[in-house]
Specification:
five-stranded mixed beta sheet, 17% helix, globular
Length: 142
């Protein structure tokens, strides 16, 4: 079993819609939608990682005061296990979002979190669904 560190995701809900990113050129799930986020770097806290990912992917400068913890997800995906810490952006109306990495994200999509598009990665559909049900600790793939 390959144990990977952890990853983070930023849930941005504005006017009842969840912000998703369309993956491109990443070898895994190209063309599919996911919640913005990425890996936690060595020595970096999950909160610092989600702030960095927000800047790198969405072009917004946020601090830990701009986020709140939503859920922690234990993921078993084939031979890989990791934790994915989910954060929600507070006050999304004060930010303007844009894709900062067009080589990795072809578009930003706003979607109804209760009815995510068909081409959303199944893992993210499951996580968003459970968060919508009020769960803050999830296990996927176990």
């Amino acid at each position: 079993m390959n144990h990977v560190g952890s990853s983070v995701n930023l849930h941005v809900v504005k006017d009842g819609k969840l912000l998703l990113m369309r993956r491109v050129s990443q070898r895994w799930m190209d063309g599919k939608l996911q919640v913005p986020g990425g890996k936690v770097e060595p020595g970096e806290s999950p909160a610092a990682a989600v702030c960095r990912e927000a800047r790198e992917e969405l072009g917004i400068e946020i601090t830990t005061a701009d986020i709140t913890h939503l859920a922690t997800v234990a993921v078993k995906d084939g031979g890989t296990e990791y934790f994915a810490v989910q954060f929600r952006l507070l006050r999304p109306d004060v930010f303007s979002f844009r894709s900062m990495e067009p080589e990795k994200c072809s578009e930003l999509v706003w979607a109804d979190p209760a009815a995510l598009p068909e081409d959303t990665i199944e893992l993210f559909k499951a996580v968003v669904g459970e968060i919508n049900r009020g769960r803050s600790y999830l296990q996927v793939g176990y």
